[in-house]
Structure formats: C-alpha cells, structure tokens
C-alpha cells in the first residue's frame, strides 16, 4: 500500500462523517427549522472511532504497523483541517441564513477543535519508531525543525504520555497550539448540548477522551520500561531549545 494511499484513507475517515453531518444540517434546517439536532449530530464523531482503534489494532509494536499508522494519522490531520475550513461557511449559513446560531457555533468550534486528535492518536506509533530506530534520525530532525509540524506536535504528546510534561515548557508556543483546540473541542460539544443534542454529545466527548487514552495504552504495552526511558532521553534532546548562536 503506497504512502499516498494511506494518507488518503486517513483523510477520508476524518473528513466524510463531519462533512455529511454539516451538509445534512444545512439541508434539513433549510426545510424544517424544528428538526431535532441530536438526530444530525450523532454521526459527526464516528470517524474518531478509527483514531481510538488504530493504535490498538495496528499495534505500533510491529514495524509495518507503526509506519502505516503514522501515514494514516498524517492524512487524518489533513482531514480535520479540511473540516475546520468548511466549518466556516457552514457557520455563516447556519447562523445568519437559517438562524441556527448555537448549532453553527458548536460545529465551528468542534471543527477547529478536532485538529489535535490525529496527532495525539499517532504519538504511540511515533514513539515506537523513534525508540526502535525506524527512521529515528529523520523523525527527530523533523521534530526539531518546527514545533508546529506533525512530528513536532507528536513529540509533545509523546512527552505527555511518557510522563514528561515538563517538556511542554520548552515549547510553550506549540503547547498553546495544542491546548487551544482542546478548549474549542470541549466548548463545541457544550454548545451542542445546549441546543438540545444532549446526551448524544457525550458520544463525541467520550471519543475525544479515548483518543489519547488508547494511544497511551498502546505505547505502554508496546515498549519495555528500558525502551521508554531511552525514548524519554531522546525526547529531552529533541525538544531542547536550540542553543543561541
């Protein structure tokens, strides 16, 4: 399976369900303003099931599994970015044309708030690749190159999963880049709850919580204690600020 194909699969998995939900919301509310929002919102977070399951099913402990999932998650990230982009015109239509401001605002917040999820999901596979020398130098260099690229953000989540939260202070701007979408994600589901979608919104909130938990579990079962210590040392070097010249 080619790299481009894997990226495409990841993109589709995270794009298709939110896109269908947003399209349905616009179509149905243009015909019936009283349509129950819970019936529409239910399908929005289904794609997150892949982000929860893949770290466990693909087993980053296998060489091919870790590489495959890194590419899938890379595509998934582009999928969430595309969803965030289409959430803007959807919000304008729902809020200004169809008078569904709370629903539109909730979908907009979740769209922008979902960007961090593929990165958190892929952190375990990223960690395994680093610890076992699978393109470790290349991945490490990419992480050092920019704190905001896929590798840089994955290394931050990896540090968190390994209990190295203090490393977040070394890249505080990238940390904010992660925290802000998390707040948007939480706020979006709260907005949808107030629009009458509760308790369906719990489905999205729980799946969002399970994404980093599944990645943490996969990491802890795939690497030995000594490997995790080795990886922590590598992260110390990777996330260290560049020396002043």
List keywords for this structure.
elongated, 11 helices, 245 residues, single chain, mainly alpha
Structure description:
By secondary structure, the protein is mostly helical. The chain contains eleven helices and no strands. The chain has helices spanning 3-31, 37-41, 48-57, 63-97, 101-113, 117-131, 136-145, 150-161, 172-197, 201-222, 225-238.
User: How many beta-strand runs?
Assistant: 0
Query: What is the terminal-to-terminal distance?
Result: 44 Å
Along the chain, the helix and strand elements come as HHHHHHHHHHH
Helix content: over 70%
- Count of folded domains: 1
Structural class: mainly alpha
Count of DSSP H/I helices: 11
Low-confidence spans: none
Strand content: under 5%
Q: Biggest β-sheet: count, sense, barrel?
A: none
Name the overall outline: elongated
Mean pLDDT: 84
Give me the oligomer status: single chain
Computed Rg:
19 Å
Task: Describe the SSE topology.
Elements: H1 3-31, H2 37-41, H3 48-57, H4 63-97, H5 101-113, H6 117-131, H7 136-145, H8 150-161, H9 172-197, H10 201-222, H11 225-238
Helix pairs in contact: 1-4, 3-6, 3-10, 4-5, 4-6, 5-9, 6-7, 6-8, 6-10, 6-11, 7-8, 9-10
Question: How would you sum up this structure in a few lines?
Answer:
This protein is mainly alpha-helical. It has one domain (3-238).
């Amino acid at each position: 399976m080619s790299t481009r194909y894997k990226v495409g699969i990841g993109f589709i998995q995270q794009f298709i369900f939110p896109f269908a939900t947003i399209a349905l919301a616009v179509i149905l509310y243009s015909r019936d303003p009283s349509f129950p929002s819970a019936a529409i919102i239910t399908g929005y977070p289904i794609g997150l099931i892949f982000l929860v399951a893949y770290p466990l099913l693909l087993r980053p402990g296998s060489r091919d599994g870790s590489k495959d999932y890194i590419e899938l998650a890379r595509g998934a990230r582009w999928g969430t970015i595309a969803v965030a982009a289409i959430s803007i015109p959807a919000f304008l239509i729902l809020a200004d044309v169809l008078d569904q401001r709370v629903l539109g605002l909730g979908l907009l917040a979740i769209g922008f708030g979902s960007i961090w999820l593929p990165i958190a999901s892929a952190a375990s596979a990223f960690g395994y690749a680093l610890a076992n020398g699978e393109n470790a130098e290349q991945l490490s260099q990419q992480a050092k190159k920019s704190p905001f690229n896929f590798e840089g953000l994955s290394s931050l989540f990896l540090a968190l999963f390994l209990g190295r939260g203090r490393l977040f202070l070394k890249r505080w701007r990238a940390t904010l880049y992660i925290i802000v979408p998390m707040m948007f994600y939480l706020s979006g589901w709260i907005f949808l709850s107030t629009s009458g979608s509760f308790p369906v919104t719990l489905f999205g909130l729980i799946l969002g919580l399970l994404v980093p938990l599944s990645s943490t579990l996969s990491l802890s079962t795939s690497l030995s204690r000594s490997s995790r210590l080795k990886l922590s040392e590598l992260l110390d070097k990777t996330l260290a600020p560049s020396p002043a010249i």
